Amino acid sequence: MGSIVAENRKSLMLFSGRGFPELADEIGQVLGVAPTPADSYEFANGEIFVRFKDSVRGSDAFVVQSVTEGVNRWVMETLIMIDALKRGSAKRITVVLPFYPYSRQDKKHRGREPISARLVADLLKTAGANRILTVDLHTAQIQGFFDGPVDHLFAMDILAEHVQQKYAGRPMTVVAPDSGRVRVAERWTDRLGGCPLAFIHKTRDPLKPNQVVANRVVGEVEGRVCLIVDDMIDTGGTITKAADILWDEGAADVIVASTHALLSDPATERLKNSRISELVVTNTLPLPPEKRLDKITVLSIAPLLARAIREVFDDGSVTTLFGGLS
Q1: 282 close to 301: Cβ distance less than 8 angstroms
Q2: pTM for this entry
């Protein structure tokens, strides 16, 4: 006999970064596998060390990291985890980034600016990642920055189901907070049965980040529940100003649905004092107790991520999770 034939077995292993370990635990509960224990700590000068306590040789490794506040720290930890898995002979490494860092820097607006979203993709690839799994990218073109498969998941069904159940029977208009979100809003109108679409015409000073000047609303909003949809909420300036304009135009109620709740200061204070009655988000990022308001509803993204991880592991189709939506 001139060869040794081994049984082709696959092992799914889950690994959690320290950005939001509770989400990885929840994903593990759905999958029926606990995150692999690890020694993770920082030296006195801030250098990060990671060592996994179990063998990872030949495994199909899924690294879950929520890149929350302190973005650079968690990006670096993710790269170090990938490198540890690569050097431990993991067969395939899939990085699960519920929120893709630096996604707003996806193109050059002016000369001498970076395209940081591409840089992040290059760093992940160089570290040893074979695949990326993420939720609601700021722009779909980021998928092309990574030289390998990118599974782009959508939280719309999770958010829309909650909205439909709670506001059933009330006339609704989907509102894009700016012209860049119109395509996303169109998907929402289809998902909600063809309700009207409106958008906020606004201007933004490119020299002053997080400062928005909202102008007027275009569309049918008077006497209707207005649902503002966006992929992320950072300082809350866009949606709170949009809510004021919608109320001034005669909206019956204003609610917001967003996938990623960054809620950087002063977002919590703005939302608390705003005329928004409910903000519906997912737990792609942790929401600390001091930022939890009564008007904020948090829905779990873990079942969707777990299903996608299982499809990748079984060499199935992630696209079927959304009825062919791409």
Answers
A1: yes
A2: 0.92
